[in-house]
Amino acid sequence: MRERFLVGFDPFVLPFLCGMVFVLAYCLFYLVRILAQLSAEDRKKFFKSLLLPSNALKNIRDMFLDCLIHVKLWKRNPNLGYMHSSIAFGWFMLIVIGHIETFMYVPGKAGLFYYPIFFRYFMEVDNQELKGSLLFFLMDFFLLIVLSGILLAMIKRIWRRFFGMRRTTRLSITDHIGLYSLWAIFPLRWIAEGFTAGVAGGSFMTIPINMLLKNFMSNPENFNIAWWLYSIALGTFMFALPFSRYMHIPAEILLIPMKRAGLKVYHPRKGFALAQIYTCPSCGVCIDACPMSANKQNCKDTTVYLVRQLKRNNARRMNAMSNKCLMCGKCQEVCQIGLQSYDIRMNIRERARYNIQLKHNYLASYNPDIKQAKVLYYAGCMSSLTPVIGRSIKKLLSIAKVDYTQMDEGGGICCGRPLILAGKKAEAQAMIAKNTEIIKASGASILLVSCAICYRVFKNEYKLSGIRVMHYTEYFNELIKKGKLPITKGNVRYAYHDPCDLGRGCGIYDEPREALSFVGGLAHAEKERAMSVCCGGSIGSLTLNHEDRKPIVEASISNMLYSNPDYIVTACPLCQKTFSMYSPVEVLDFAQALCNGLQEKDVN
Amino acid sequence: MAENIIIIGGGPCGLEAAKTLRDLGYAPIILEKKQELGGHLRKWDRLFPEGVQAKQVLKELTSGLKGIEWHTSVDIETIEKSRKGYTVTLSTGVSYNSPALLLTNGFKLFPAEKKEEYGYGIYDKVITNADLEQYFAKGKDNVIKKPKTIGFVHCVGSRDEKVGNRQCSKVCCATAVKQACEMKELFPDATIYSFYMDLRLFGRNYEDMYLTAQKKYGIRYIRGRVSEVSEDIDGSLIVKAEDTLLCKPLRLKIDLLVLMTGIVPENSSASLAQQLNIELGEDGFYKPKDTILEPCMAENNGLFMAGACTGPKTIPETLSEARAAAVQIHNYLNKSWISGIL
User: Domain-by-domain residue ranges, chain B?
Assistant: First the structure.
């Protein structure tokens, strides 16, 4: 092979070249900006983690699997996975092989951005050689792969169900420009390479179209127009990229090592959060996953749109969207890039200003008289509103002959979570401090909590060294396994609902199921464990009213009734209360279900 | 032969409408799902404002049913609309035809168990207004034994979006005032608290009842909702509430708590509405053709409704509506015969 022109340049490369330079400059600017926004401590942590060889390997593996192969999407739906990996990996291979060719034949031109991209235009074949035709074949093969991906992308616009999606994101204008230019790039490349296939060679894709219109396509005077169009499509895509969802392509390369370094979101749109915002590919998986979008409502308040408003810095919408959210964490669980929407929303809430004065001076005079015992039981406010739960727990504890005492008998201090969720983390500290004081003074070794909401905050926000914080599902499961609870298996089937704060919030999925399997059969819900659907009653939402919540609750109940259980069982008093309002089958609390399994003689 | 008119529901409304229709020359058929006629009136002891015996009213309503066909313990399977009117088929296979259909299927009391924080069905000493009427009627009860402090909680399941009911049940304020006075008469030494949001004493003489309750009987009215109820070791109740006039939280030890359960649509309303294509309001009650001009008429021809199935009502209001609906049916059928539809 040899060069067709001595100059090695043609004006048609300019759209691409400008676009490429623009993208690189933009990315560099934002890379510096994001790194500058990180706190000195975080920055140090990030660079340290980059230098660690084991991390570097893991980062490279993740970049390959996530950015190019899209493993998570494959797991979600093979069609969706193929569509993304064919475009990403295929395009990547086209660029790599283009560079290999340039290195092999014209090493001197390898430094030019455009040369490997428009290689076929600048070269001509002098004699056939084997290694050349292998590369020709590979180039055409990957072009075919990419084209098949583009075809699927077009199908996805009209037939979402084929890709396992009910709803997809409504694209912004720049997203549309990016999308259509991306669709145009590869067919145009095929045509352009088809024109030059006669002189520059080609394989099974490009040679046939060259042969098809031989007289027209082999005429060098017609080459330029095709290559100009190809370059313009590339250039358009590059210019649209930073302002569209395609920014995720470069951004993910930064996000992967940042996540590995264990950074934390400290501002809704700065530093680590900004890297996440840019990495969101607007795939819209979170729209279907969001419990609020039941009945096609509130779709516009899902995470993908929150990210768009964060990009635009629209404070009013950002606040409204984060206040409406149930904070169930499902979008984070399904997110392909692991966008930490929960932390981002919490940061937005913490920045909101309310004209409310909170007075906590009464806390100092509150000194409950708590008897010393091994197990300190904290019922929480929700358990006080659902007396059956407290009763069942006390019954189980006394049957198991546990030495226990209740911390908030007749009224105690709130765990602090409602305030934290309202963005008043600092104010909640007053309660946390007082509760910590009470718990430590009690001399108990186990803090038993029957509310998933309280449990999460005791587990994550309190510093209770030496005291084991246990959710009652964990605790009773242990008691059963130790043989302390005389329980028999009945022939009823329970569908267990994973409360958001317990499951996704604290990772407790197995203990309640294991314990329930001692008293009856387990019926599967349609979506469970990490994919479980919020009951709709969550105190996480600050603005949804009861009417707005009704369709959410009903959708969540129908998810629970998937395999016709006799009872729905949940381990959070709020879920129990919410479900009970609309559920056609009885909704039991976990402790109630265990009580149902107590052997007759032990029930007094 | 006299024309049949089917009436679904044999409470005060259905009975009164049937009598009026009979007097107008028709042959009404009452279909009642319960074992006996009379509806909720059977559960009540005395009626506000004057304290008339419910038994007496019931006797009046259920006597003189000559010329009226009535069936109890009935289970309606299907209702079909034809050009000639309606065909109601029962689960037994029997079916009835009628050129017009009157729905008087009434209401049900809000199930107090749903408001779990008040502990009905969990704590023995928490009862409902209906339970209390039963006590008044029978004169004895396992739970009510010389209570020293008694609490009445207004609006249980009414005006409470948390349980999905936004509507006011209209009659419970007056009932609560009446019941509080009756309790004070039975237990003169008892202290009685009434927890209310607003007191809606709209009818004639109702305000006098309320004033008497305060002046003569010394009932203590506390504006504020009860937040939660728990049980003390000795079995008495601890009620947490807020006095919103004093801006103070309250904690009271109480021996008996009466929940004034509100009025919600009868279970059958939703299925009847679906079969008959009637629109339901947000509160679940039937929506009449026009709430002001045609409160007893449905959108579809030949379909009428009266009584508490279109919203909470007092008994006199229900009875007037029953008569009005009967006359409207009569007019409708006359018009239809003249224009030859039927």
Answer: 4-106+266-339, 112-263
Question: pLDDT digits over B58-104, tens only?
Answer: 999 999 999 999 999 999 999 999 888 999 999 999 999 999 999 99
Nearest to A385 among B163, B228, B231 (CB): B228
DSSP SS3 for A567:
strand
Domain spanning B112-263: CATH 1.20.1250.20: no
Mean pLDDT of the residues in chain B: 93
- Judge whether A362-477 and A487-602 match in fold: yes
Contact B164 A410 (CB under 8 A): no
Q: Write down the CATH superfamily of domain B4-106+266-339.
A: FAD/NAD(P)-binding domain (3.50.50.60)
Q: Which of residues 105-134 of B touch A (CB under 8 A)?
A: 114, 116-117, 119, 122-123
Q: Which of A85-89, A366-370, A465-469 shows the lowest per-residue confidence on average (mean pLDDT)?
A: A366-370
**Rounded to a whole number, what is the distance in Å from the CA of B297 to chain A's nearest CA?**
29
Q: What is the pLDDT of residues A207-240, one digit of tens each?
A: 888 888 887 877 778 888 899 999 999 999 999 9
**How far from A474 is each of A370, A509, A590, CA to CA, in Å?**
24, 10, 11
What is the CATH architecture assignment of A487-602? 3-Layer(aba) Sandwich (3.40)
Domain A362-477: CATH class, spelled out: alpha beta
Residues from A contacting B (CB-CB < 8 Å) are: 384-388, 391, 410-411, 545-547, 550, 577, 580-582
Cα A516 from Cα A494, distance rounded (Å): 8
Checking if the pLDDT of A257 tops 80, the result is yes
**Distance from C-alpha of A586 to C-alpha of A581, rounded to nearest angstrom:** 10
Residue matched to tokens 């919540």: A549
Q: What residue spans define the domains of chain A?
A: 2-244, 264-351, 362-477, 487-602
- Interface confidence (ipTM) of the complex: 0.77
Which H or E run contains A304? helix A303-312
pLDDT given for residue A128 in this prediction: 62
Of the ranges A412-416, A490-494, B114-118, B256-260, the best mean pLDDT one: B256-260
Chain CA centroid to CA B278, Å? 21
Residue A460 pLDDT greater than 60, yes or no:
yes
Q: Which two tokens stand for residue B144?
A: 């009510």
Chain B nearest C-alpha distance from A581 (Å): 7
Q: What are the structure tokens assigned to A81, written together? A: 């996975």
